[in-house]
């Protein structure tokens, strides 16, 4: 199983060597690197490039920042004695948006999709000593890739990525790269699901591994809480410590495999015991209703672009704790695995979103969507089957990667897709089914609806276990007139109340662009005062409808987008600046969320 998504670990049976650092890099605008054998000969004119990071914001020239097309990364991998009873892998946390990877000039594998791991078995390609690892990456967008977009070609032949979405098309090797060594007979994957039995818990497990399996669960003190033998079965945990919202308890799970009585492999990981269910219009964690408070985020920061950085993640969690949040959505793509590890530790809930974004044909689709002016998409998509295949693969890989995180409470299949045609229904129905079939924990499955997906027109909301709405009354609709905005908001919510009163609703986006420098009395759009008043208006509408079970503001921080007349060096809807300092409305949210 080469698509195992287990996070790398080192122990007496496995070695995980981090390859992060300064790599060699070269743009390949004419796509000639493969025919000119760059993978075996080495990059002809490399510059240095840090990994992990987006390349865009490290340059001082616009063409480099906006580069679209093929580009190469290269580094050396030093292998100690290669042994016949071991397997060797190269694992990228992600390469955006697609890649072909070569080891010593030979193709090791390729991957479509820029937000999930690329795990390549290089056992036959690696040799003792220095090996050349070359990555041909590409960041073009089209209507079969997720996210969706297009590429325009300028008269001089330069390509420009035109995402049908509102975030910069950051590209590169955004997450850590590892050289992994593990025994030939090894542990490939495991799945857990939970049932509570009074104060006790039943863990159903299955392990995919070569050899005989035994597992041990240890509590925080290292005492054994349960054990089991065999590749699937149940463990009974007496007086279980539950993983609770903002009060996480993590056990350590150890999986051992043996062949002829001898231990051959071992994998240790943190796990949390908790259940997630929908009951009427409540979202239950461990049988208790939870109201989701938090943000839609982006992986986005100064200099790094979308590159993962532990310090940024730490600061984000500290800000989210300070403000009283308990949840975030990985808008609009699965994040680096380290975000989920931290959420597991901090007791945060995650709505895990696949990059199903841009499924509406518009270069500023946030405008069209926010105002309820969607265009069709699926009916005239050039190759809807290929798009669906890529979407399906991303769902599969996301669930395979994230299924064991206690923080993950739901899967989001799309953000603001067109959902008002029969074609959209036919497109999404099998994808929702896939998510339901693949998740051993049967978490809720949802999708995020924009304004056009109104109660009377949306064909897809019945597929959702809870309904996510992005609504901008007071910004894209009746901007500057909160009274009028509120009246229209209530009108729509009354329609939902009549249509789907027994389903939980979560607001996954609401917000206003706000300049940290602008104060104005009386308020105007873009001022800090307006953001506060807008939030208060939204809260009063949310509180009026008992089926509203969450509010995830847009956005946690200001973030980079493409250029445009509606964006001032990016989207300014952050409750925090891009440097992670609070705007005034952050105090409004804190006051509410600390009491909610
Ligand atoms: C949306 C999109 C999000 C945008 C946001 C906005 O509806 O889902 O990606 O950034 O609106 O600020 O316009």
Any overview of this molecule?
By secondary structure, the chain is α/β, with parallel strands linked by helices. It has three domains: 15-183, Galactose-binding domain-like (Jelly Rolls, Sandwich); 187-274, Sandwich (Immunoglobulin-like); 290-595, Glycosidases (TIM Barrel), CATH 3.20.20. It has ten helices and 30 strands. It has helices at 38-41, 62-65, 310-323, 337-346, 365-370, 384-402, 422-438, 482-499, 528-544, 584-595; strands spanning 15-18, 21-28, 47-51, 70-79, 86-92, 98-103, 106-112, 118-121, 129-138, 149-153, 159-163, 177-183, 187-197, 200-209, 212-218, 224-229, 232-237, 251-259, 262-271, 276-279, 282-285, 288-289, 292-296, 327-329, 349-353, 408-415, 445-449, 467-470, 505-509, 548-554. The strands form seven sheets. An eight-stranded parallel barrel has the order 23-24-25-26-27-28-29-30, surrounded by four helices. Strands 3-2-4-9-6-7 form a six-stranded antiparallel beta sheet. A four-stranded antiparallel beta sheet has the order 1-12-5-8, with no helix packed on it. A hairpin with a 2-residue loop joins strand 20 (276-279) and strand 21. Helix 6 (384-402) runs parallel beside helix 7, helix 8 (482-499) packs parallel to helix 9 (528-544) and helix 9 packs parallel to helix 10 (584-595). The model has no long low-confidence stretch (mean pLDDT 96). The chain binds (2S,3S,4S,5R)-3,4,5-trihydroxy-6-oxo-oxane-2-carboxylic acid. (2S,3S,4S,5R)-3,4,5-trihydroxy-6-oxo-oxane-2-carboxylic acid is lined by residues 165-166, 366, 369-370, 415-416, 450, 470, 509, 554, 571, 573.
């Amino acid at each position: 199983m080469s698509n195992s998504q287990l996070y790398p670990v080192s122990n007496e049976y496995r070695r995980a060597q981090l390859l992060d650092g300064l790599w060699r890099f070269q743009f390949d605008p004419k796509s000639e690197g493969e025919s000119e054998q760059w993978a075996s000969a080495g990059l002809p004119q490399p510059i240095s490039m840090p990994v992990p990071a987006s390349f865009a914001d490290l340059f001082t020239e616009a063409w480099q920042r906006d580069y679209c097309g093929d580009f190469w990364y290269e580094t050396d991998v030093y292998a100690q004695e290669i042994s016949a009873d071991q397997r060797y892998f190269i694992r990228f946390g992600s390469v955006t948006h697609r890649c072909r990877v070569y080891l010593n000039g030979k193709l090791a594998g390729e991957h479509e999709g820029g937000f999930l791991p690329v795990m390549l078995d290089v056992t036959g390609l690696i040799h003792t000593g220095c090996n050349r690892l070359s990555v041909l990456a590409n960041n073009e967008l089209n209507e079969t890739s997720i996210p969706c977009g297009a590429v325009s070609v300028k008269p001089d032949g330069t390509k420009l990525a035109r995402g049908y979405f509102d975030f910069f098309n950051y590209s590169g090797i955004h997450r850590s790269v590892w050289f992994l060594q593990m025994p030939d007979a090894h542990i490939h994957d495991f799945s857990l699901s939970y049932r509570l039995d009074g104060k006790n818990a039943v863990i159903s497990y299955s392990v995919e591994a070569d050899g005989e399996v035994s597992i041990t669960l240890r509590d925080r003190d290292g005492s054994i809480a349960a054990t089991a033998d065999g590749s699937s079965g149940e463990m009974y945990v007496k007086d279980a410590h539950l993983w609770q919202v903002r009060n996480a308890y993590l056990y350590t799970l150890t999986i051992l495999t043996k062949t002829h009585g001898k231990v051959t492999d071992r994998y240790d990981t943190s796990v949390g015991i908790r259940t997630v269910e929908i009951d009427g219009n409540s979202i239950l964690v461990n049988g208790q209703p939870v109201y989701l408070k938090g943000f839609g985020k982006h992986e986005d920061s100064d200099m790094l672009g979308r590159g993962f950085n532990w310090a940024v993640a730490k600061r984000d969690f500290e800000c989210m704790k300070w403000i009283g949040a308990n949840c975030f959505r990985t808008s609009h793509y699965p994040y680096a695995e380290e975000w989920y590890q931290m959420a597991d530790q901090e007791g945060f809930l995650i709505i895990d979103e696949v990059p199903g974004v841009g499924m509406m044909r518009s270069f500023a689709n946030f405008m069209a969507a926010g105002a309820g002016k969607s265009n069709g998409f699926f009916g005239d998509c050039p190759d809807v089957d290929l798009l669906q295949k890529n979407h399906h693969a991303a769902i599969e890989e996301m669930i395979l990667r994230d299924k064991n995180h206690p923080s993950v409470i739901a899967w989001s299949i799309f953000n603001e897709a067109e959902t008002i045609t029969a074609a959209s229904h036919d497109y999404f129905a099998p994808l929702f089914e896939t998510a339901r079939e693949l998740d051993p924990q049967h978490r809720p499955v949802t999708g995020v609806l924009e304004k056009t997906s109104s109660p009377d027109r949306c064909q897809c909301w019945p597929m959702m276990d809870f309904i996510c709405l992005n609504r901008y009354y007071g910004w894209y609709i009746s901007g500057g007139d909160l009274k009028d905005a509120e009246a229209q908001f209530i009108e729509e919510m009354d329609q939902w109340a009549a249509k789907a009163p027994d389903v939980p609703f979560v607001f996954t986006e609401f917000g206003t662009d706000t300049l940290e420098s602008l104060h104005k009395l009386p308020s105007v759009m873009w001022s800090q005062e307006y953001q506060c008043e807008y939030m208060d208006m939204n809260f009063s509408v949310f509180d009026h409808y008992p089926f509203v079970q969450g509010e995830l503001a847009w956005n946690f921080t200001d973030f980079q987008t493409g250029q445009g007349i509606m964006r001032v060096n990016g989207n300014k809807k952050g409750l925090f600046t891009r440097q992670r300092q609070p705007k005034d409305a952050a105090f409004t949210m804190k006051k509410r969320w600390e009491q909610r």
